[in-house]
Amino acid sequence: MRVRIVRSVAFVFILITSFLIASASQADDVWQSFETQTQASFRGLAAVSKDVAWACGSKGTIIRTIDGGMSWLHYSLPNLQDIEIRSIHAWDKNKAIVATAGQPALILKTTDGGVSWKISYENKSPQAFFDGMKFQNDQSGLAFSDPVDGSLLIVKTDDGGDSWKAIPPAAIPQIDKGEAGFAASNSSLQTFGVDLAWIGLGGGSDGPSRVFRSQNGGLLWTSHIVPPIARGTSSGIFSIAFESEFKGVAVGGDYNKTTLDTQNIAITQDTGKSWRAPHGNRPRGFRSCVIAIEKTWLTCGPSGCDWSLDGEDWLAMSDIGFHVIAVPADGSIWAAGSGGRIARMTDKSRRHLTIRGQ
What we know:
It is a single chain. By secondary structure, the chain is mainly β. It has helices at 9-24, 347-353, and strands spanning 31-34, 42-47, 53-57, 62-65, 73-75, 84-90, 96-101, 105-110, 118-123, 130-135, 141-148, 151-157, 165-166, 179-180, 189-192, 196-200, 202-203, 207-214, 221-231, 235-242, 248-254, 265-268, 289-293, 296-301, 304-308, 315-318, 324-326, 334-336, 342-345. The chain is globular, with a radius of gyration of 19 Å.
């Protein structure tokens, strides 16, 4: 039986705020950390459930747990021990797919729990560099790379990642000089349903960042400026999340200025056509990932994690830095970062986040 809790939004806000501010100074109260037996920097995280999760990162590292983080299996891709692997999607404990960040530019899939991997896409251009990969459902997915021959490379699959086809450059807006994606958390590409997709960009000359947006599953894209987040050599949009088809949040900033809390967040309420700054406090610095869960927003970066009820006003959650957060269907919350760090939000913290005024 579902119990409806009738409280004012203000009361709920105060209750959660009190708990999380206290927890921010006691990080172990928020996150349960796991020993992964590696010092890899993890930027790809695919959580299937509270028990099953995959992660990927530096030096060709791919790891998997099937017992809730208590133990981790390590995998090595042949001849790819030194490459960055920053994009990952997992269907279950046996089936997963990854994309390399750099050369060789590959997408590889396993169906036997990581024992063997098959190349399902390869781009031999020296410019190819995969920044993100997302699946809209079990069969359909998108991946994108830095520009190749002056155009953003976007590839699409409709057979569960077994094969990929490039979107024609004529269907993608023109790239500005130096503009590209950031492969910081596998979340600068985001999808909602089977039709909507967004790609957050940065880099290049100084100016506002941009979002590329698709309304037909990635077959055609339009360009939209994001004035609140400035772009530059090391700055721009690093992550996008949507709680509905209309409302989304983009985060980023300058990864060389991890505690700078300006020009690091933007909000849309019209499916990404226009973006504005939030009305309240910003996250506490550069942020590489943002997620929406049960109308609560979480964001993370090297300097810590923040949360918000509405995306407008952000509060400290913990001071532990992560690169990426992932939430599977069961609602557990996983995070991964540098130094082999992987954690899951404690049950106590997770319960407090679900309190909601109705």
